[in-house]
Amino acid sequence: MFLMLGLLAAGSIFFPGIFLASKQILEQLMGWSEVDAVVISARLVSSLQAVMASSAGWTIVSSCRDVMEDRHWLADAYILFATPYFCYDLLAMFLCYWFRLRVKGHQEAGPDGGSVCTAVLGFLRREVLMVLHHVFMVAFCCPASLVWRQGRGDYFQGLLFLAELSTPSVCLGKVLIQFQRQDWLLHRVNGAALLLSFFCCRVLLFPYLYYAYSRYASIPLYRVPLVAPWQCNLGAALLWPLQLYWFSLICRGALRGRGH
């Protein structure tokens, strides 16, 4: 219990701490504006978390020969450490939204309580899918991974961590757009890397989870949803359509970029 609370506390301090330290460095030492410092710091923390999650995922997957019974301590430890990240990230995304409104001079970015409430409602309308995704990760995926798995399937948990491989490309692309560097070769290379990593690590992830279990259990692929725990089917049913939707947005953005 103390270890679990310690990991949760460590994550609760680590991610906001990196954000605040990065913001201070960009503002005080590099002279960046507050809005740029906030947005870049949020992207930095997201990329750092993605690298850590992907590293943990690769370590777990490469060490598990039996996809159901082999254990690795990182599977549970990183879930506990990273769960506070999703709460922090919601706040960081709102701060990015709010500071952008202040720069644009929107009324809802004012200091009074009513204006803040208006900004929160505007943020929720704009980022409803991402907010629901983060709430679902904390409220459902965390207990499903820590309690309902009952110590089995660390291999599959590692694969889920590997979904974060696409996040650094997402963050870099947004940073380049923020600084209007769409004409750089780096933007095009990053766009190709984003398409490939998102498709492989998020779109193909859920079908591969079912395929890997069908091979383990020596059953046809179509029978896996019938024997898999309901928590797995519910998680896949809710998360996979989101990945397909976001991938369609990425493809549309890439096509618009080619048109210009």
Low-confidence blocks of residues: none
C-alpha-based Rg, rounded: 20 Å
Strand content: under 5%
Gap from first CA to last CA: 55 Å
Q: What letter string, H or E per element, gives the SSE order?
A: HHHHHHHHHHH
Structural class: mainly alpha
What's the main sheet like?
A: none
Q: Portion of residues in helices?
A: over 70%
Reconstruct the topology from this structure.
Blueprint lengths: L1 H28 L4 H30 L9 H32 L8 H14 L1 H21 L5 H8 L5 H12 L6 H19 L1 H13 L6 H4 L2 H30 L1
Helix pairs in contact: 1-2, 1-3, 2-3, 2-6, 2-7, 3-5, 5-11, 7-8, 8-11
What does this structure look like?
- The chain is mainly α and 260 residues long.
- It has a domain at 1-164.
- Helix content is 81%, strand content 0%.
- It is built from eleven helices and no strands.
- It has helices at residues 2-29, 34-63, 73-104, 113-126, 128-148, 154-161, 167-178, 185-203, 205-217, 224-227, 230-259.
- Helix 7 packs antiparallel against helix 8.
- The chain is globular, with a radius of gyration of 20 Å.
- The model has no long low-confidence stretch (mean pLDDT 91).
- GO terms for molecular function: sphingosine N-acyltransferase activity.
- Its main location: membrane.
- Keywords: Membrane, Transmembrane, Transmembrane helix.
- Residues 35-259 form the TLC domain.
- It holds the Pfam family TRAM_LAG1_CLN8.
Short description:
The protein is mainly alpha-helical and 260 residues long. 81% of the residues lie in helices and 0% in strands.
Q: What descriptive keywords fit this protein?
A:
260 residues; mainly alpha; globular
